[in-house]
Specification:
330 residues; mainly alpha; Serine Threonine Protein Phosphatase 5, Tetratricopeptide repeat; Arc Repressor Mutant, subunit A; 3 domains; 3-stranded antiparallel beta sheet; 3 strands; 71% helix; 3% strand; elongated
């Protein structure tokens, strides 16, 4: 059997010859017997970077009933997810793991270990989620049992995602730096420049709520190199990637005033003026009617005030009664 020959090549460490043996099996002999050699074949495809071929021959099989075959089926799905990752389809990588994997059938068998391991997949899930998803989407992602299975292989992965959700930038950057050091030579980290991509995204996200912020604060929180930070921030400004201007005297970034921000600030001021006016008028009316109740009944009966307020449409009266009952009757 050719697939047995492929297994022998694989055991001997000759991945290329193993791949060729499995390919011949598929073409000429046993294409239908997918679980006898597909997990091994897919592992060699990932190692040999035959991503297009993996996509073409991926079997459309129903989920098996037998436990062992379900585990093999799940391993094929993991290789399919890795194929998406290596080709740059990071959202597809996350979606396959989130929606298609049965977490109780994920095994770190010898075929998976040829290409990667469970912890490493958890790391890839973490950096892809940070690079591609919003905080709300990451929260939704963590509801998946399969995603949690992988990211809890190393609790730092889960901690990083939780820091991202809670906007704890200082802890997030500190933990990510350890990943960058560990995976500095990793093929995926190098190919997709995760260090630069995540720094860009997190700096831009961190700056969003500020109208004015010191360069030193950005350096401290984001863990940027002191000497390179200013050049990096200036480049973001020049490329219109952030809506700020640099003030060299105070060494701060100041938000640029745009037509949109002008309109928003005018709107906020208008809301405050109207709210203040309505509050004064409402207070005057309440005092006036409290005086009537007091004069007619000789008391400030709380229930009378509530009923009177409801009659005049004061929807927030129940919350305000205790405060207004302290006013002097007029």
């Amino acid at each position: 059997m050719l697939f047995i020959l492929g297994n022998l090549y694989l055991k001997a460490g000759d991945v290329t010859e193993a791949f060729r043996s499995y390919e011949r099996v598929y073409k000429y002999y046993e294409a239908g017997d997918v679980y006898s050699y597909f997990p091994q074949w897919f592992a060699t495809m990932i190692i040999e970077r035959r991503y297009e071929q993996l996509q073409q021959v991926y079997p459309k099989e129903p989920i098996p009933v037998e436990k062992k075959k379900r585990e093999q089926y799940t391993t094929l799905l993991v290789f399919q997810a890795l194929r998406c990752l290596y080709q740059g389809y990071q959202n597809d990588f996350l979606q396959i793991i989130k929606d298609e994997l049965q977490h109780d059938c994920i095994v770190e068998d010898e075929n998976l270990l040829l290409a990667t391991n469970l912890r490493e997949i958890g790391v890839f899930i973490t950096v892809c989620a940070l690079a591609r998803l919003t905080r709300a989407q990451v929260q939704d992602l963590l509801k998946s049992d399969s995603i949690r299975f992988f990211v809890t292989q190393d609790n730092e992965c889960l901690n990083i995602l939780e820091c991202y959700i809670s906007l704890d930038y200082k802890s997030l950057i500190s933990k990510l730096k350890l990943f960058y050091q560990e995976y500095s030579q990793d093929f995926i980290f190098k190919k997709f420049n995760f260090s630069e991509v995540l720094t860009d995204k997190l700096v831009k996200q961190y700056l969003q709520p500020y109208k004015k912020i010191s360069i030193q604060k950005i350096v401290n929180i984001m863990g940027l190199n002191q000497e390179l930070a200013l050049d990096y921030l200036k480049k973001l400004i020049q490329n219109n990637q952030v809506n700020f201007l640099y003030d060299p005297i105070q060494e701060v970034l100041v938000q640029k005033e745009t037509e949109k921000t002008k309109k928003y600030e005018t709107y906020q001021k208008a809301v405050k003026v109207i709210a203040s006016f309505l509050h004064k008028k409402q207070k005057q009316m309440l005092r006036y009617h409290l005086g009537i109740v007091h004069n007619e009944n000789g008391s400030k009966n709380k229930q009378d005030v509530i009923e009177l307020g409801n009659m005049h449409g004061f929807s927030t009266l129940n919350k305000m009664v205790n405060q207004f009952m302290n006013f002097e009757s007029r």
